Amino acid sequence: MSESALIPPASAYFLEDRHDPEERHTLSILVDNEPGVLARVIGLFSGRGYNIDSLTVSETEHDRHLSRITIVTTATRPVLTQIKNHLGRLVPVHRVNDLTELSLQRNDETSLERELALVKVTGTGDIRAEALRLADAFEAKVVDATSDHFIFQLTGRTAKVERFISVMKPVGLVEVCRTGVAALARGPEAM
Amino acid sequence: MAEQMTGAEIVLRALADQGVEHLFGYPGGAVLPIYDALFQQDKVRHVLVRHEQGAGHAAEGYARSTGKPGVVLVTSGPGATNMVTPLTDALMDSVPLVCISGQVPTHLIGTDAFQEADTVGITRACTKHNFLVTDVNDLARILHEAFYVATTGRPGPVLVDVPKDVQFAIGTYVGPNQVEARRHLGYQPPRQGDPEAIRYAARMMAEAERPVFYTGGGVINAGPDASRLLRELVAATGFPVTSTLTGLGAYPASGDNWLGMLGMHGTYEANMVMHDADLIICVGARFDDRITGRTDAFSPGSRKIHIDVDPSSINKNIRVDLPIVGDAGQIMSEIQRVWREEGLRPRQELADWWTQIAKWRARKSLSYKKSDDVIMPQYAVQRLYELTRGRDSYVTTEVGQHQMWTAQYYGFDEPNRWMTSGGLGTMGYGLPSAVGVQVAHPGSLVVCVAGDASVLMNMQELSTAVQHNLPIKVFILNNQYMGMVRQWQQLLHGNRLSHSYTESLPDFVKLAEAYGAVGIRAETPGELDSAINEMIAVDRPVLFDCRVASLENCFPMIPSGKAHNEMLLADEANDEAVANAIGAAGRALV
Ligand SMILES: Cc1cc2nc3c(=O)[nH]c(=O)nc-3n(C[C@H](O)[C@H](O)[C@H](O)COP(=O)(O)OP(=O)(O)OC[C@H]3O[C@@H](n4cnc5c(N)ncnc54)[C@H](O)[C@@H]3O)c2cc1C
Ligand SMILES: Cc1ncc(C[n+]2csc(CCOP(=O)(O)OP(=O)(O)O)c2C)c(N)n1
């Protein structure tokens, strides 16, 4: 074998490991309500390798044909800026608000964020009683029940929903559905 | 008064009202109504291509050489999917295109109908924006909006998908000026740069000891005025200027302050200036990885001003100190105004900087081994340049070594004269692009510098050139290799030349003749000049088979994992240096 054949292949790109700390931010995006707009937003995230931790979308202003998309994403600060700039480039996007950044700037403790979860648990006897007791402690509502199941409805911040789900696991949790985060900036101003 | 007409007539009317004179296209079932309307009018001239990809690149060449949007018409399904490469190419290089595609009738969408493809789905990621028209009464508004989006802000390709029933339906036409309420009120491209930032930029320039202008395709996008303003700004400050591949011609290659192109295959002086500068003024360029090399070693001691119309270009790859978002022309004109009004001057130290630059220039990084027996590819481009100099000429390229040699050795003195696929690096771009350029500039000399591999990718468009009497000159630097691939295999893969040699190339002279074009061949340096002159003199399309040294490589080169000041130069690039160019650290990058 020639000596050059022993040289392992090298890359045409400069590859570097980046170790900047990641942050979790909630973005509120006002868009024209038209076909394909959600696909554009999601395609941007998947195409450029950004994370979507949670996604909520619905028409919010019928007369102006506007929808609001709320995305929770985790990224480094420079990437977060890129995400916002790329979203701003999409033609149907009106505004992008970084609610996490906003609450940091205003020294609010947290931004106003809520999720709704429906949690189904099955079981009888002691375990069933324990499930109900825990649900009560979390202020979850019973929205459906038979003698061997409950469906609880819980509203709260993501952390609370996650805690609730984890305590329900040992007491018969079989199914969960979550809405994803809905969020608004605190205070009187609109976006 | 609102006029009623069919969707197909609306398309033609909207194109005419947008000032479109030429349309590149290929017919098919889903666009027959539009072709019928085309037949019955004479405002818009249709150029029939041989493959939809050819139409797309022709429209790109047309756009890049005129500053106007290029327009394409294709059918549904395969017609639309064949446009994916040119749309992506235009998106990467910020070229304004409007592509109208036919679609199956609305009631058949989603049924896997004949020649149905989810065109808006497929092209969402490769257009600036796209539309599916479901109501004929939206058609005119959408078409006008498509032109607006394609040409404003950071230009790019826009696709309008028009189902066949919408083309037949009768609807209301609205003109470009009647579209008072655009649908997308959120789309507001930035224009004016922040005055405070502009003033600060001018002062930073006056404080700099080792400044450089790093300009890019955005200056070309901003129009000929921006190139003029750049020249004035360079003259006023006396700063050196370099450009990316896509920005060549904004500042003249014959200008005193020109350093040559920068980046991976840029000149020694341009890259050394970037590395050692204390101020970089980036105008309409995007810190691409072919420019920066190792980002952590990129121009470590400089402050950076970045002028760009697209906020997402800023701080994408390199952190800058002063971003200014807006149009390059407007911002340069404001910087000049501040420079004048505040009586700013460059610092004395600028003279020392030029002394240093002279030393780097003396390194003569574009020199190469001359030969009396074989045509060196660099020599071929130099001769082409000398023999076409002073003419009204335009140059396109394919992708590979020949592209880099053209960028290095052909001196562009004006903007919009140079068409190349930079961001996507699309082999097959150059020949159809030349077709589009020649359509826009019928009396000019249009040369496509090609490689023997690339040119075969859209060779069929030679037939388009012959049909429409477009005397393009395809100047093939025939080295019988995919030279650029081979070069990287030599550098990066232990000289294992896996599938980069082209067996069974056609006889290009006979091929030209088969198409009804003219074939010319040159095999020795001695016959080159007269062959080139013959090519220029012929008033028909030409395939020029220029047989060049087959193993020549393209230098200077910044090898992977290296900084700007660790360039590999031609006279140092012996076999051993090439094999060891990528050091242990570079190999560890894999
Ligand atoms: C084989 C090969 C080798 C290559 N080697 C090199 C090399 O050695 N050197 C090199 O330079 N390139 C090289 N390239 C090209 C490279 O890949 C990039 O395409 C190129 O460097 C990008 O140029 P740019 O930064 O000017 O950006 P462009 O892609 O031209 O983008 C233009 C920028 O200007 C902005 N802009 C647009 N309009 C305006 C306006 N009106 N006002 C202000 N800003 C505006 C845009 O937002 C964008 O950020 C090579 C390509 C190939 C295929
Ligand atoms: C469509 C496409 N496929 C593959 C490549 C990868 N590629 C880059 S340069 C090159 C070789 C080009 O060879 P040729 O046209 O002969 O030009 P040369 O480098 O020899 O001047 C290839 C295959 C590309 N850029 N585009």
UniProtKB/TrEMBL annotation, chain A:
Domain ACT, first and last residues per copy: 26-98
Family from the record: Belongs to the acetolactate synthase small subunit family.
GO molecular function: acetolactate synthase activity; acetolactate synthase regulator activity
Function per UniProt: Catalyzes the conversion of 2 pyruvate molecules into acetolactate in the first common step of the biosynthetic pathway of the branched-amino acids such as leucine, isoleucine, and valine.
Catalysed conversion reaction: 2 pyruvate + H(+) = (2S)-2-acetolactate + CO2
GO biological process, one term: isoleucine biosynthetic process
InterPro entries: Acetalactate_synth_ssu (IPR004789), Acetolactate_synth/TF_NikR_C (IPR027271), Acetolactate_synth_ssu_C (IPR019455), ACT-like_dom_sf (IPR045865), ACT_dom (IPR002912), AHAS_ACT (IPR039557), AHAS_small-like_ACT (IPR054480)
Record's keyword terms, sorted: Amino-acid biosynthesis, Branched-chain amino acid biosynthesis, Transferase
Protein known as: Acetolactate synthase small subunit
PROSITE patterns, per database record: ACT (PS51671)
Lipoprotein listed as a keyword: no
From TrEMBL, chain B:
Limits of the Thiamine pyrophosphate enzyme TPP-binding domain: 399-546
InterPro entries membership: Acetolactate_synth_lsu (IPR012846), AHAS_TPP (IPR039368), DHS-like_NAD/FAD-binding_dom (IPR029035), THDP-binding (IPR029061), Thiamin_PyroP_enz_cen_dom (IPR012000), Thiamin_PyroP_enz_TPP-bd_dom (IPR012001), TPP-bd_CS (IPR000399), TPP_enz (IPR045229)
Cofactor(s) essential for the protein: Mg(2+); thiamine diphosphate
GO cellular component, one term: acetolactate synthase complex
Annotated EC: 2.2.1.6
UniProt GO molecular function: acetolactate synthase activity; flavin adenine dinucleotide binding; magnesium ion binding; thiamine pyrophosphate binding
Domain named Thiamine pyrophosphate enzyme central: residues: 199-334
SUPFAM superfamilies noted in UniProt: DHS-like NAD/FAD-binding domain, Thiamin diphosphate-binding fold (THDP-binding)
Catalytic activity: 2 pyruvate + H(+) = (2S)-2-acetolactate + CO2
Superkingdom in the source lineage: Bacteria
UniProt protein name: Acetolactate synthase
